[in-house]
Structures are given as C-alpha cells and as structure tokens.
C-alpha cells in the first residue's frame, strides 16, 4: 500500500507535535507508512501547496497564522490550484471566521481543542473520496 502523505500547516510547534503523534497513530491503524511535512511559515506553505499540493492526500491547515492566515492561503490556492481544496482540513479554534469568509464552500473543519478520535473521523471523511488516484 502506498504511503499516506499529509501536509500540516500550523505556526504552533505544540500543535504540530500533537498532530504528528496523532497522524502516526492514524497511519499505523490504516497499516500505511506516514510521510508527513510540517510547515509553520505561511509563505513556505503556499509554495509547497502550489508546487506539490497534488502529492498530498490531506492538508491540515490552521486558520490563525501570523503574516498570512490559513483563510488567505485557502483563497490563493482556490484560485491557482482548485483541485486540492477538497483535501484541506482546517484545524482551528475559530470556525465561525471560516464560515463567514467562505459561505459558498462546504468546508471541512476540525475544532481545536480536539481529541484523537475526532481527528480520526475527520481524516476518514476527508480521505474517503480520494481512493483511485491517491490510494
């Protein structure tokens, strides 16, 4: 089985560590190797998403990031690389901000703080439709 490739974009190292641990656990339960890329700089994240976004099965994106928020990254990606926006799972304590900014989109949101089973369920829902091309 091919590796599970996930991109995490969050400026908080503690959140990155928690997500890394949870994602390792998730991948083990799926019997898949995890290839994880964690970024805290929004400019690096935007570059990675525009140049290599299609290689990721899931993109976990924080909303409140200094200099350029996850909402801005989502907006830019929606314009230049719309195929990957369905792979984005927002990880935020401020979901109402997203719903106001993008009322026309059916966003996938994981509310902070979260537990492992919530991340597990969110990933199951996010990854379900990606079977043939990205399995």
Characterization of this structure:
It is a single chain. By secondary structure, this protein is an alpha/beta fold. It has a single domain (4-129), classed as Rossmann fold, CATH 3.40.50. 46% of the residues lie in helices and 19% in strands. The protein has 6 helices and 5 strands. The chain has helices spanning 13-29, 42-52, 70-80, 95-101, 116-127, 131-134, and strands at 4-9, 34-39, 58-62, 88-92, 109-111. The protein has a 5-stranded parallel β-sheet. α1 (13-29) links the parallel β1 (4-9) and β2. α2 packs parallel to α3. The N and C termini lie close together (8 Å). 29% of the residues are buried. Residues 131-135 have low confidence and may be disordered.
Helices and strands in order, then pairings?
Elements: E1 4-9, H1 13-29, E2 34-39, H2 42-52, E3 58-62, H3 70-80, E4 88-92, H4 95-101, E5 109-111, H5 116-127, H6 131-134
Parallel strand pairs: 1-2, 1-3, 3-4, 4-5
Helix pairs in contact: 2-3
Distance between the termini: 8 Å
List the secondary-structure elements in sequence, H or E: EHEHEHEHEHH
Q: What fraction of residues sit in β-strands? A: 15-25%
Helical segment tally?
6
What's the total count of β strands?
Answer: 5
Structural class: alpha/beta
- Backbone CA Rg: 14 Å
Helical residue percent band? 40-55%
Major β-sheet profile: 5 strands, parallel
Q: What is the C-level CATH assignment? A: Alpha Beta
CATH names the topology as: Rossmann fold
Q: What is the CATH H-level superfamily?
A: Response regulator
């Amino acid at each position: 089985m091919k590796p599970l490739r996930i991109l995490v974009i969050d400026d908080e190292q503690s959140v990155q560590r928690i997500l890394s641990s949870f994602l390792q656990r998730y991948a083990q339960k799926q019997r898949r190797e995890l290839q994880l890329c964690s970024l805290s700089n929004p400019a690096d994240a935007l570059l990675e998403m525009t140049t290599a976004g299609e290689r990721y099965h899931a993109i976990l994106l924080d909303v409140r990031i200094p200099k350029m928020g996850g909402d801005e990254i989502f907006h830019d990606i929606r314009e230049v690389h719309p195929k990957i926006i369905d792979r984005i799972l927002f990880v935020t304590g401020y979901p109402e901000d997203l719903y106001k900014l993008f009322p026309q989109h059916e966003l996938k949101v994981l509310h902070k703080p979260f537990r492992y089973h919530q991340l597990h369920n969110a990933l199951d829902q996010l990854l379900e439709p990606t079977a043939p091309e990205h399995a």
